[in-house]
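Two proteins follow. First one:
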Amino acid sequence: MPAQAQVARNNNGNLLQIHLGSAPGTLVHKGNTVQVDWSAGPKSRLVLDGNSYKALQLHFHAGSDHRVNGHQFPLEMHIVHQSVTDPTQLAVVGVLFEVSTHMNPFLTQFFPLLPQHPSGKMPPIKQLRGKLLGIHRGHQFYRYSGSLTAGSFSENVEWVVLSTPQPISHEQLNTYLRLFPKSSARDTQPLHGRVVTLVEL
């Protein structure tokens, strides 16, 4: 979250709708992270305050850009969406990962395809199933307006961050860190009057 965020509750589930379907994916080595170009399927949707967005890609940051109660997580995934009516408007679903004894079923679909070395070939993902993330009604998300956390750091980005971290095994985390050992996290930023809202699906 932005630095020293004060969280307000809003239990109006109509403010947020998320559905991630299935679609092929393309792995792209970006130098400091791996990106998966992925549409999440024709029935996928992200709706914020009545505005619809479609998935473009997902990528990772190690450690996490967002912190909860000051705690930084070892890995964070960003699912980047673009407005269907205004391509300059983006929305990002953030998923935090915490080390567990359990493999993450979503990551299991493509982490084994990552090359042993940065110059290695990245094969296509035949089908990436969003439902394996396990996002469902009752989950809570932190919501705020901000900017991208890398590249241009452009504004006009709506953030939706899953409040409950997802499991990732030591093996899966090490698979990623072997390729990208350096931290790509952005420092927490001042609020500048922004409000972080806790929203339930």
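Second one, unrelated to the first:
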Amino acid sequence: MPKKKRKKWDHKMAPTFVVPRKEPWPAIYHGKDLAMVLRNLRRHACNYDADRFDGLEELGFVWRMPRGNHQIVTYWANATTKWLVNGMPLTSLVAQLKTYHEESHNLDIPAALTVEMQDGHQSTFHVALAYAPRLLRAHFYELSVADVDVLHGLGLFPELPQWAIVKALFSRYKERLHSDAVPVNFEVPATWENVYRGIRLGELAWYLVLVAHDPLQQRPWRFRRPGDGP
């Protein structure tokens, strides 16, 4: 099936596309959302034989979700009591958290609560919203400035500043301390500029190492754990 898609568009990143009910498209997929078919291929990849992997690789199948889209637990409204893990734009989760807060005046989200969301395709999913904060924190620096402002306004992740502040702060650290090694217990002192004051830079550096955000591949600093040498 993906082979037909590649022949038509020369890539595997399916937009919103419903398989036509005609040849040469396989009859089993007529009328189906192609993006959903591809998500299912990713989700069940652990069950594939090696030759199936080879065939998908040969077609240039995209295994990773595009930046800004990540997996979250959902209840598929079109199935019978079926919990799945599906791709969802991070910005949609931010918007839904904001809506929940406006209606409930808190973010104490019950684990069993699901909220209806459009995933950008034809199918409607019910997202288990309680999982959203931890997912957003793990991918915080993939969010837009506007989405970060929304999350900060909700009281979430105050320990994670805007990315522009993070970059400037590491430069300031190196300028003041003449070192690019950040101890895990380093907190910006009160004598520094207000915009940086109180930020736990050591913990922030540790977080950035863990999430391995792409812009950090050439980062101008090193994280130093207790006991590390100079």
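SUMMARY FIELD: Residues 94 and 151 are 7 Å apart (CA to CA). The beta strands are 69-76, 83-89, 114-118, 124-128, 181-183, 222-224.
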